[in-house]
Specification:
The protein has 306 residues and is mainly α. It has 16 helices and no strands. The longest helix has 24 residues. It is found in: Endoplasmic reticulum membrane.
Length: 306
């Protein structure tokens, strides 16, 4: 959410959220008092402050945005990478002219010289280069970032947008393909298409399997990719067993090996979720629930049993 944190929220909703900021700030104690007066400190509290910073900046309430930022800084420290990214966004929003933006850009580059792995600042630098109408430098920086973080879907999406703006459509298509494969979304769409197709269903299922295989090749612990792979393999085997006359390029042995691999990896990932906070590793609430179901009840062996 560092490039464009509130693009999915409408203006009325953003305005409504930012209007609540003064009341929230008044009713919630600053971080330095929380250990004394509160029994728990929830992650939702700090996510609320972060969301308020974005909303207030978007609606022009710089005072409330600054107060929320101060609370985050008090709690996590100004050297926290996420706080640094939010602080950078705040500075950009209140900058009066291009000269001030150039100064902020210099600050980003100084930070990255000391710590090239600072992802929030790297993304803010790219966003600022884009704002300063330096797409060539933004594209170069994004490609370098993707060399070290190839599974960051947000980076691929931003790179595609930059390529499209420059008329570099071939490169934009490649970036979008990587984005789709990372999310395994292309495999999901192919599967959904197969469920409504009158003809060529087996071909669509095979293409979906290929997409899921590509997604887990890019990311070895990609839960969604493995689950999609197993799901579609079961669907394909059911379809073939129903009397399909179409010959599959994938043999029964190949499908069986892929199915066993997906089963093994899904079980491993799910078991690890018991002993670690997978919510901090990009897994959605739905995926975490599914992992717990796998641990409790095992994996379904056939699609018709789902």
């Amino acid at each position: 959410m560092i490039f464009s944190p509130l693009v999915l929220l409408s203006n009325p909703i953003t305005l409504k959220i930012s209007a609540q900021a003064p009341k929230i700030l008044q009713n919630i104690l600053p971080a330095k008092y929380l250990n004394i007066f509160s029994t728990t400190e929830t992650p939702e509290l700090w996510l609320t402050y972060e969301s308020l910073v974005y909303s207030c900046l978007r609606t022009g309430d710089e005072k409330s945005a600054n107060n929320c930022l101060k609370r985050l800084t008090e709690r996590f420290g100004e050297d926290n990478e996420r706080v640094m990214g939010i602080a950078g966004l705040y500075k950009e929003a209140i900058a009066k002219d291009e000269a001030e933006l150039e100064k902020i850009l210099d600050e980003y580059e100084n930070i990255l010289r000391k710590d090239p792995t600072n992802m929030p600042i790297s993304k803010r630098r790219i966003a600022l280069l884009k704002s300063l109408e330096r797409p060539d430098k933004a594209i170069l920086a994004l490609n370098r970032l993707l060399d070290t973080s190839p599974n960051d879907a947000e980076n691929w999406a931003e790179l595609s947008d930059l390529y499209i703006a420059q008329g570099m459509y071939k490169q934009a298509i490649f970036a979008l393909e990587e984005l789709l494969l990372i999310h395994a979304r292309l495999g999901e769409v192919l599967y959904m298409s197969s469920s409504t197709a009158q003809t060529g269903r087996e071909k669509l299922l095979i293409e979906a399997i290929q997409c899921f295989c590509r997604s887990i090749e890019l990311c070895d612990d990609y839960f969604r990719g493995y689950y999609g792979l197993k799901f579609v393999i079961n669907e394909l085997e059911d379809f073939q067993n129903s009397g399909s006359q179409v010959r599959s390029p994938l043999s029964y042995q190949e499908l069986d090996r892929l199915n066993k691999l997906a089963t093994l990896k899904l079980s491993e990932i799910s078991q690890r979720s018991v002993n670690s906070d997978f919510s901090q590793q990009g897994y959605s609430t739905a995926e975490l629930i599914l992992m717990r179901e796998i641990i409790s009840h095992g994996l379904p062996s056939r699609s018709k049993d789902r």
